[in-house]
């Protein structure tokens, strides 16, 4: 197993609050001290950067994130955009796509509110399980317009990995460079032929629910990644854990952020996957997409 430095977690949440809609206080991720300690551990294991996907309407707090970054030593990039139904704030219903795009552009160019901290990605903007709801389509189109103006990557949420091709249709309407787009949670689809069909479009996909075995087993994730890498797709795949609950922390009995490095990567290496493929998925691809 190669000792890889500058590992990048492609999709995490330093803080997020989905508890109102879900009616579950566990979904209010606000344990700052625990987060700092876990991020310090990640730094000691080669993680240099985390992409934070908490956006507008779900308790984004860039000053909180900045404090965690400073105290842990891990670089954290912030996001702009709007999540999905039923988590969208009032402004999504009141404003048109051009106005929403202007808000995203301002976050990217000038900074979030009066913090001076700039967003680096439009994400995670999402779609529902069975269809793209009208407000979700509005956000996708606004995200496309903001991407055209700023050039930053777009990261989407797919519910259980579904509707990837439907999202791509919207991106194609705006001639978005698909090499700058990541479809999240595609490992949850459980369908490797579907994964291949998305990758063949030139888009990036995320295996970013590592450790969430109640959805898909990590043994399956390993087998899918082994096959995809053997077919030459390792330069279009990124990885993460998407931790969103207090119960996910090690101290609270969860797997913790370092599970990806401590447990999942060794599982991959046991399949004799090449070092270059692993390095693509946890370092090189995010560097390319974000120009780091």
The helix/strand order is EEHEHEHEHHEHEHEHEHEHH
Per DSSP E runs of 2 or more residues, the count of β-strands stands at 10
CATH superfamily grouping: Metal-dependent hydrolases
Helix content: 40-55%
Which spans have pLDDT < 50 for at least 5 consecutive residues?
none
CATH architecture: Alpha-Beta Barrel
Task: Give the number of domains.
Answer: 1
CATH class: Alpha Beta
Helix-strand category:
alpha/beta
Query: How many distinct helices?
Result: 11
Global Rg: 18 Å
Strand order of the largest sheet: 1-4-5-6-7-8-9-10
Largest pleated sheet: 8 strands, parallel
User: What share of residues are in beta strands?
Assistant: 15-25%
**Alpha-carbon distance between the two ends:** 25 Å
Shape: globular
**On the 0-100 scale, what is the average pLDDT?**
97
- What is the CATH T-level topology? TIM Barrel
Structure description:
This protein is an alpha/beta fold and about 290 residues long. The chain has a single domain, classed as TIM Barrel, CATH 3.20.20. The chain is built from eleven helices and ten strands. The chain has helices spanning about 20, 30-45, 60-70, 90-95, 95-110, 135-150, 165-175, 190-200, 220-230, 260-270, 275-290, and strands at about 5-10, 15, 30, 45-50, 75-80, 120-125, 155-160, 180-185, 205, 235-240. The strands form two sheets. Strands 1-4-5-6-7-8-9-10 form an eight-stranded parallel beta sheet. Helix 2 packs across helix 3 (about 60-70) and helix 5 (about 95-110) crosses helix 6 (about 135-150). The protein is globular.
């Amino acid at each position: 197993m190669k000792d890889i430095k500058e590992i990048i977690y492609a999709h995490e949440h330093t803080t997020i609050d989905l508890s109102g809609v879900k009616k579950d206080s566990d979904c209010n991720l606000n344990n700052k001290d625990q987060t700092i300690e876990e991020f310090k551990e990640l730094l000691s294991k080669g993680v240099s950067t985390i992409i934070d996907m908490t956006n507008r309407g779900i308790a984004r707090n860039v000053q909180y994130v900045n404090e965690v970054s400073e105290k842990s030593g891990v670089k954290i990039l912030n996001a702009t955009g709007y999540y999905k139904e039923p988590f969208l704030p009032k402004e999504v219903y009141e404003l048109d796509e051009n106005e929403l795009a202007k808000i995203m552009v301002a976050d990217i160019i000038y900074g979030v509110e009066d913090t001076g901290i700039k967003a680096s990605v439009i994400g995670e903007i999402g779609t529902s399980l069975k269809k793209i709801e009208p407000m979700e389509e509005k956000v996708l189109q606004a995200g496309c317009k903001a991407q055209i103006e700023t050039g930053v990557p777009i990261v989407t949420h797919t519910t259980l990995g579904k509707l990837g091709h439907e999202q791509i249709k919207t991106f194609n309407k705006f001639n978005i460079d698909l090499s700058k787009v990541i479809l999240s949670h595609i490992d949850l689809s459980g369908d490797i032929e579907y994964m291949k069909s998305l990758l063949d479009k030139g888009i990036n996909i995320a295996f970013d629910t590592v450790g969430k075995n109640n959805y898909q087993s990590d043994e399956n994730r390993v087998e899918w990644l082994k096959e995809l890498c053997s077919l030459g797709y390792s330069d279009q795949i990124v990885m993460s854990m998407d931790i969103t609950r207090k119960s996910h922390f090690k101290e609270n009995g969860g797997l913790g952020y370092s599970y990806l490095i401590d447990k999942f990567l060794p599982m991959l290496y046991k399949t004799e996957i090449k070092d270059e493929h692993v390095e693509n998925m946890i370092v090189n691809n995010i560097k390319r997409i974000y120009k780091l």
